[in-house]
Amino acid sequence: VAGLGRTFGRGAMTNHWVDIGNASCVFVIGANPTENHPASMAHVNRARYDLWNRGRRARMVVVDPRKTRTAVQADLYVRIRPGTDIAFVNGLLNYVFKGVELGTVNATFASNFVNWHNGTAANSTSVGRAFYADDNGLTANAVTFNAAALYTAGVNAKVLYDGVPTNAFDSPTYGTRGWPKWCDTRVKVNSTDPSAVDYKRVVMTTTTGKVFTNMVELAESIGDPDCVYQRLKAHCAAYTDTVVADICGCSTADIAAVAIELMNNSQMMSDDFSSNGFHEPNSAGYRATTLMYAMGATQHTYGSQNVRSYAVLQTMLGNMGRPGGGINALRGIHNVQGSTDMGVLYDGIPGYYTGNPGHSSLTESYASYQNRQFGQRTDGSANSVDPYAPATLGLQQQGFYNMTSAFFCDYRSLVSPYAAGDFDKLFDLWPKGNGKDHITAFRLMQGGTPEIKACVVWGQNPAVTEPNQSAVRTAFENLDLLVVVDNFATETAEVQRKTNGVTYLLPASSYIEEAGSVSNSGRWIQWRMRARKPWGNSKADIDLLLRLAKEIDRAGGFTHIKNQWATMAAAPASATDAYKVLFGDQYGFDPGALNVPGDIEAVTRTSADGVAAVGAAGNFGFVAATGTVYGTEAVCESIFEQICSPLGAYSGSNNNGKGTLWIYARAFHPTKTSERPLYINNNLVDWLTVNRAKCRDLSANAVGSWHNYPRFGFAWLLNRRVMYNNVTNATAVTIADVTPAGLLVTARTLKVPDEADNFVGPGYLARMMSFTARNTNTLANWTGHFSYRSYNTLRDMPSVVVGTGTNPVVTTAGTPHAGCLPGNIPAHCEPIETPRRDLAATWGRNLQWKPSIASVYGTTVKTDTNVAMWSSAESYTDAFYGSGGSWTADAKDYPLVLTSIRCVEHFQGGPITRNNSWNVEAEPVPWIEINSVDARACVPPINDGDWVDVITARSNSTTDQEGRTRDKGWAKGFKARVGVGLQGNQRVAAGTVAIPWHWGDQGLGTGSRANDLCIDAFDSNTVIPEYKACLCKIVKL
Amino acid sequence: MGKKDKDQGGFQLSRRDFLKVAGAGAAAVAIAEPLMAAPAAALTLDPLDTATTTFTTTCPYCSAQCGQRVVVGDVTKKVYDIYGDVESPTNNGGLCAKGAGGFQLATNARRLGVPEHTVGVDGKDMRGEAWKRIGNGSWMAMPLRQAMYEIASGDKYASAQQFARADGSVYDVGIGGGSSLHDGLVAIRNTTAAWHDTAPFLGQNATSVQFFGSSHMNNEQNYTYRKLIAAFGTSRVEHQARI
Questions:
Q1: Fewest Cβ atoms nearer than 10 Å: which of A124, A404, A842, A877?
Q2: How many whole angstroms from its chain centre is CA A653?
Q3: Is A142 in CB contact (< 8 Å) with chain B?
Q4: What does the alpha-carbon distance between residue A312 and residue A329 come to, in Å, rounded to a whole number?
Q5: CB contact under 8 A, B231 and A561
């Protein structure tokens, strides 16, 4: 989320699974989809073997430390050392620069590259230009922006944003520039600051006195020495072939080979390049590279920078916003997109707002919080709107208003906005400030007087999945109260506890007994029908959640809410029954009194339709068009309705206008007639759906020649399937041509639903204008706010002084998520534990996680000797490097890089698959992959099939050092899989070993836990630990 | 990718079939075939079931979220089959070695609370509604209502409490007393130094209770979980997106 979100706006897969079939090149880096996302390989192979009969065959390029089951299928495989992605990508970018400026690759590439990066929005020159308002889901309003009406001190706005630049690489004239259509390479960087922390900003004031403080200044061409392109080029100059080959452990020829594949499969070489940006993936000459990454990228202390470097590469090559292109983050669990959308994170609430309300101040006002979402719009001044009039707010802001109502008051009776004073009281009920990340949270459970005394673990297995298990198990042991909800008695449920610690275990039902919607990696929201009632005494999650809510209310847990209601001018009905107001009335289930249990099966609801009659040939009849749903499916559909209803003016009789999650808005329609039409074969056709997650229209017309399947499920935002194409296909966007479902129809090219996907990326000019859609207030007051995203909002550089020349020196430390510090374009740094100390001395390591660790451990926890020995992140780093991160001569001898892996037969921490006998039989024990060179070098030598102990500074794999696991006998080490054949062809390179992390101490199949060994240093932007690289030694058992 | 498994053509996967699939997984995708072809096997219905119903759901494993179909007996509600949904554009009927084992996951006797989970399964009778253990003691079965009550309010009963079993019978408190007395979530929350039930400092982010959520739950459950945590007065929640 951090890497993509801060680069493009949304941390999500930009395209979708089926779209991979449109690619002409598949670039896999830091992922092993053959084993971990097997279904995606069918789409890859569809492109590679031309199963859509387009007359071209896609290439597949894999860059990975392991020769994975994906890599063995590749047209081109390059092995790099774990944790060196950024260096490799920056090396690739150097080839792009050479190709552009020296024409060394292809004259067409060079020419098209310049034209593309200097390109100007097609509608940039017309006064009163119209943009599609990307956050407006209700009415297709024109967003007018008349540059001529703007003026600035010193810089003529018309010059900056109006007109067409010359398409020369380096135009010396200071002419008209025009708004960049595609990306920010032409935006000027603040030249007064050599570390380049931001774009150069100009202040614009409209003739009516509204102020934009942070408009960016544009260069005429990418030849301007102050523009982003030139800064990027200068930054990458240090990454010569020789340097990159040394860092990555590959050959210089490898870098060139990958670069040429990518350039040949970029938009610059596509036969649709000159067709006015009209994408035509069905053409044999169409070129687009899709980039697939997963945990191999993110699980590093600089994981978000890894992802950002991919984003830079794909943007430079023009692959964003194109079918078959984009950056596709292969997420781990089936609904990790949805659970992240719902903000189940310490710094999140549903909908990707900037953390919890009031995180900057305990007394932040509602209006101030709203302004942080989208500029100064609700400050009550003359040019702003009324923050208490939700229908006039932007989509994101109104979603927050409705969510506050649903979370803390009587959402159901919301027929008109609250009085301002009453709404302020509801806003005050949001917990103030953010929580703590998972690494820190476990530390806060330790010690004599821990801050955290109770923990509820609902559907996760941290006693296997968290790195540095000793710290985690110390924490679990120390809790007064532990509650575990799961399908099975997991490692977390069976964790060792202190004598008087109490553990509860509740049985959740299986997935086929659950109902509701799930969001896949490509943002498709699909409905899960409930196949039967929960089996036996197991209960659906929603049933258990509502019962827990009822009991928390009974225990006085909502007293603070009821007290607040009592002070409202218009208190909710039933204000003495918090459960009823907050849950019972909203979702239709009351668990009842203590000795008279309610039965959720008694709840019924008329099933919402999924597919209308249109395209009946493609309607396969699996959707309940009419009828009744029962129990948890009824409750979940009520919740889905609350989440996904359209935003806008309230209707007293239904939930129109009352949606609470702006990114999911319009996935549900309380009334059929409110649905917007769809264009099929140039005809306007009503799509009479209610619950779009249930839609399964596979008729040819509804599939589209891009295979976007706009009527199969629903994709946030507004059913867009390919994000960030910046209205590529719009040559003359007029408002009448844009439907609110995101369908773009022009007189020239009526080609829907393929064009259902135009999405203006955040940072684009239209973004700034978008909130005007509901209001005559044309321009909001952006004083003090960034209307255009910052040049860099990620901490990209290690905190230690590094290098010379083009490597900037960054010494500022910060705390995680304190609002990321300005940084630079991603630069290579080494993992916290690295075998290449020479490189770490030159390039540094990312130690931004240390300040928070120090502040957490402080004096309270670290004084506990039992804790300090294993849980101090500093102490085990010091074991390698000495205190303060500097090298010491007596560093211990851990010669091998340990990287964690997954296999197709098991899943994550294994609580599910290790209880299935089929999966256990297929892969019964954990193994270690070793190069034959390393195996032979061990004393005694390791043979294939031997059992091996793996030892890191934190633990080993055969003993339970602290005695913190109840059941014994599971820690047998890892079974050796020694490579055969040529050294370079083996699964892992010499110097690297790989172990799967699926095993633990419970279930049908047990085995040594990889996470006893892995380091818990983490990426300060994401708090994702560095599972993919630490140091170890191995010993034959 | 062919449509080998039309909607009526379900199959019941045997262990032998499964192992074939698991072993051939990588090779199968390499030749652009469905991840798993449908082995033919007889579908044996329970005599009580005169008919079956097919439901659509999605696979519980990776984020490809492959479509699956679930065949359930109309009377016994037994699961007869779980197989790839040929109409899903994501997987066109294919499933990998994990997804193909969905049938065993749903029908697993090791699941908590299912009637099949007798002591013979893994040495523990886990057929109950909820369990509690003190220290490292054994699991003690208890009514769900009692467990919920104790989680929220603690087990320091001020007076006699009655809890209903699933069958409607009443269960008096009896287990976990004595030295095991503990506070519930609400009392533990209230130990947060900054916790106040009244304005102007009400509900300002309790720090003494940590929640972990799950990407295994559907959107509605995640949304409700996040809502419950906000209403409880804390931001202390994390889940698998970090790992």
A1: A842
A2: 36
A3: no
A4: 15
A5: yes
Beta bridge mates, A205 = A151, A211
Q: Taken in order A726, A729, A733, A735, is the CA torsion positive or negative?
A: negative
Residues of chain A contacting B220 with CB distance shorter than 8 Å: 516-517, 542, 635-636, 639-640, 643
Helix-then-strand count for chain A, H and E:
31, 28
Distance CA A241, CA A247 (A): 10
Instruction: Provide φ and ψ at A143, rounded to 5°.
Output: -115, 105
Q: Whole-angstrom Cα distance, residue A393 to residue A400?
A: 10
Return the residue in A422, A518, A629, A907 with the most chain B beta carbons within 10 A, the one to mutate for interface testing. Answer: A518
For residue B139, the distance in angstroms to the closest alpha carbon of chain A comes to: 9
Q: In chain B, where does DSSP find H-type helix? A: 15-30, 102-106, 119-122, 144-153, 185-189, 219-232
**Which residues face A715 on adjacent strands?**
A524
The whole-angstrom distance between A253's CA and the closest CA on chain B is 27
- Residue A215 phi/psi, 5-degree rounding, is -65, 145
The pLDDT assigned to B209 comes to: 97
| Residues A636, B90: C-beta atoms closer than 8 Å | no
**Phi, psi of A434, rounded to the nearest 5 degrees:** -90, 175
Chain B interface, mutation test: which of A73, A453, A605, most B Cβ atoms within 10 Å?
A453
Q: β-pairing, A1030-1036 with A129-131?
A: unpaired
The CA distances from residue A154 to A39, A219, A860, A864, in Å, are: 56, 15, 56, 62
Residues of chain B found within 8 Å of residue A453, distances taken between Cβ atoms: 188, 191, 208-209
Please report the pLDDT score of residue A618 as a whole number: 32
Query: Closest residue of A to B208, CA-based?
Result: A452
**How many helices (H) and strands (E) would you count in chain B?**
6, 9
Burial of A783 by CB count in 10 Å (0-12 exposed, 13-18 middle, 19+ buried)? middle
> What global pTM score does this model have?
0.89
Task: Evaluate if residue A350 carries a pLDDT over 50.
Answer: yes
Nearest chain A residue to B214 by CA: give it: A459
Complex ipTM value = 0.89
Put simply, whether B173 touches A (Cβ < 8 Å) is no
Which of B32, B147, B166 has its CB closest to that of A42? B32
pLDDT digits (tens, 9 = 90+) for B71-90: 999 999 999 999 999 989 99
Cite the beta strand spans of A388-491 per DSSP E. Answer: 454-458, 481-486
Say whether A121 sits in a helix, a strand or coil. Answer: coil
Phi, psi angles (nearest 5°) of residue A527: -90, 140
Task: Give the sign of the dihedral formed by CA A111, CA A116, CA A118, CA A120.
Answer: positive
